[in-house]
Structures are given as structure tokens and as C-alpha cells.
Amino acid sequence: MRSPELTPEMRRDLQVIRMRAYLDPKLHYGRESRKLPKHFQMGTVIGGATGYYRRLTRRQRATSLVDSVLGDTRTASYLRSRFTQAQQHKSQQARSAKHQLTNAGKRQQHKRFKQGKQ
């Protein structure tokens, strides 16, 4: 099998597949390699004739895997909530680090002031 030419769209699809464990908290996937695969194949899903009334309309069909993942409302809401949690955690850490720095500076100033009085 030859290695296909990596387009930006294929690269995004492969990254979504690689990070699929973060999309659904209730599913567990095995360990993934850190690098993108060199050899892979992309296919098209063709629906059968039995599920005529359960098939997706043209508006619901997505052109890529990234579009289908982001188009899912449950996944999008989960990702949004996780993003806000991460942002809040990051801002709390930044605030506490800033607070520690200002307190450390005040302590040093206080020590210098005490030493100057003696």
C-alpha cells in the first residue's frame, strides 16, 4: 500500500481519530501512537437499502469527519463544557501564581524594611 498525499483536511481527520478518546467520556480506547500513520486508506460510507427512513438527509451529511463530530450537539456541548473548565482552571492557576508572587515581593520588602531599622 502506498502512502497517500496528506492534505490539510486528511490531517485534521486523522487528528480527530487519534484524539477520539477525548470526544466521549464514557468510551475507553487503547493507547495511541503520537505520530500520524504513514500508510492509511480513506473510504466512503454507503448506506444500505434497508435503512431508508433512518438515513441522513443531505443537509445532515458532513463532508469530513471533523464536520460530523462538530455537528453533533452532544459532542459539541461536551467539548464546550470541557473547554470552559480548562479555561477556568488555567485562570485560577494564573491568579494564584500572581498572588504568590505579590505576597513574596511584600515579604521581601518587609524583611528589607526590618533590616534597615536595626
UniProtKB/TrEMBL annotation:
Record keyword Nucleus present: yes
Comp. bias regions, Polar residues: 83-106
Protein's UniProt keywords contain Transferase: no
GO BP field: RNA processing
Keywords: Nucleus
Protein's cellular compartments: Nucleus, Nucleolus
Pfam families noted in UniProt: Fcf2
UniProt-annotated stretches for the region Disordered: 83-118
GO molecular function term, any single one: RNA binding
Cellular component GO terms, alphabetical: nucleolus
Compositional bias segments (type: Basic residues): 107-118
Main location: nucleus
Superkingdom assignment: Eukaryota
Domain Fcf2 pre-rRNA processing C-terminal residues, every copy: 1-80
PANTHER family in the cross-refs: DEOXYNUCLEOTIDYLTRANSFERASE TERMINAL-INTERACTING PROTEIN 2
Protein name, as recorded: Fcf2 pre-rRNA processing C-terminal domain-containing protein
Species in which this protein is naturally found: Fonticula alba
